[in-house]
Amino acid sequence: MQYGSSGNTLNNFISNGSYSFCNPAFASLAGYSSLALLKMLGMSAYTVIQRFRTGSFITPEDDIYKKMMNQLGLSHGNMVGTKSDLVERARENHLNDLENIIPFVLAGLFYIGTRPKFDCALWHFRIFLLSRLLHTIAYQVPLPQPTRTISWLLGYSSIISMTIPVLRSIQL
Amino acid sequence: MQYGSSGNTLNNFISNGSYSFCNPAFASLAGYSSLALLKMLGMSAYTVIQRFRTGSFITPEDDIYKKMMNQLGLSHGNMVGTKSDLVERARENHLNDLENIIPFVLAGLFYIGTRPKFDCALWHFRIFLLSRLLHTIAYQVPLPQPTRTISWLLGYSSIISMTIPVLRSIQL
Amino acid sequence: MQYGSSGNTLNNFISNGSYSFCNPAFASLAGYSSLALLKMLGMSAYTVIQRFRTGSFITPEDDIYKKMMNQLGLSHGNMVGTKSDLVERARENHLNDLENIIPFVLAGLFYIGTRPKFDCALWHFRIFLLSRLLHTIAYQVPLPQPTRTISWLLGYSSIISMTIPVLRSIQL
């Protein structure tokens, strides 16, 4: 970590409060959130790959990509019937990530403010990240249900569990 | 609140800056944001309920849920025509939440950094949360327009109003 | 900036850590994030405008707006064929903003915790905001491809580049 002259960790922790990389729970949240966000950003790239594989683009100006693929001999005329399925599957997965990973990071930020026990926080983050990875695999392979539903439910429960101490410690 | 040995609230407020639960405006934001996020997460559960009620699922592997419902005698053959409407209504509502509640929390985090007056901040959060609850009721009942439009506009204005002090207090 | 009695900026910076408007990198993030969020919120208004221009609404209760437009002599019967295209283009653009601007703000918040050099942080934020403005123009005019793809890729790279120091400075 790039810390300046005030190198005393304990001192930093006291003076900086919860929102500092000296607080191991915040550093954990930063790491797991970044990994989850990268996984979500990866869905954009994955959707683009599926678009090129199936020749399925959304706007007329994207036709230059189709022409480019034809010139390179990469056209997939035989996949026309199934094209929207693969792209839609990637897009639905991406939307589900938005609906779960973003609330995880935001709920996590407030959760850190309640000064949770480090181990307790770490397991929330671990379970969430693993459940999202499993969810994506289950969605894209696809694995038989209810694998996808259960993996989604695990991550979902982890978010709700993090909001409870926040709601307890504040008055509206 | 679970505070450690440094129990002096005034001291904490001075040393921790704006982003601490000792700052009542931040604690308020945490509470109202968590409630808004829970309301948004609730839309996932609501969509699942609408899918089961109408037997409308998106992927082939979800067919086991249809079979399960048939075995339990819960099939709704007569609702086939309207099924997509109810699910789409829930999904559009969820997307609208994503487009408004997430920017609210993020704009709120920066707004807290400008040290707003507590009362002023609190009314922004209250109006936003109420407007989103009204928006959801107006969307799902559904109530006659322009109820939904007005409730959306209230929350939307609250977010924009919070970004003004942020843009004023910084130079780009 | 509205600072209270503790007016000593240097003192504030030391005692408040990274997440304070006294930290110029955080103030920058707040400004650029707010502008990006306002740009994203603008897509809601833009979609509403496109709906009214084309008379394309999603729910039956919105029919009162169609009637209102007819009474005002603003109906566009001749645009029925193209209506979904314009609205869909606005909606896809909005969704792309959600998929990129929200991760930018969240990754930026953790990036600030790694105490990046101010110049380095500022250029990340500048490139991101410009790339999103260019992306929107390229999407809505529309400009010929690959303008949209390149502008999207620039902003995307900026987010990924910000997560690298976060992942480096923490252990999972």
From TrEMBL, chains A, B, C:
Pfam families: MAPEG (PF01124). It is a multi-pass membrane protein. Its EC number is 2.5.1.18. PANTHER family: MICROSOMAL GLUTATHIONE S-TRANSFERASE 1 (PTHR10689). Keywords: Acetylation, Endoplasmic reticulum, Membrane, Mitochondrion, Mitochondrion outer membrane, Transferase, Transmembrane, Transmembrane helix. InterPro entries: MAPEG-like_dom_sf (IPR023352), Membr-assoc_MAPEG (IPR001129), MGST1-like (IPR040162). Homotrimer; The trimer binds only one molecule of glutathione. One of its GO terms (cellular component) is mitochondrial outer membrane. It comes from Adineta ricciae. Conjugation of reduced glutathione to a wide number of exogenous and endogenous hydrophobic electrophiles. This is Microsomal glutathione S-transferase 1. The keyword Transmembrane helix applies. One of its GO terms (molecular function) is glutathione transferase activity. Belongs to the MAPEG family. Its main location: endoplasmic reticulum. It catalyses: RX + glutathione = an S-substituted glutathione + a halide anion + H(+). It is found in: Endoplasmic reticulum membrane; Mitochondrion outer membrane.
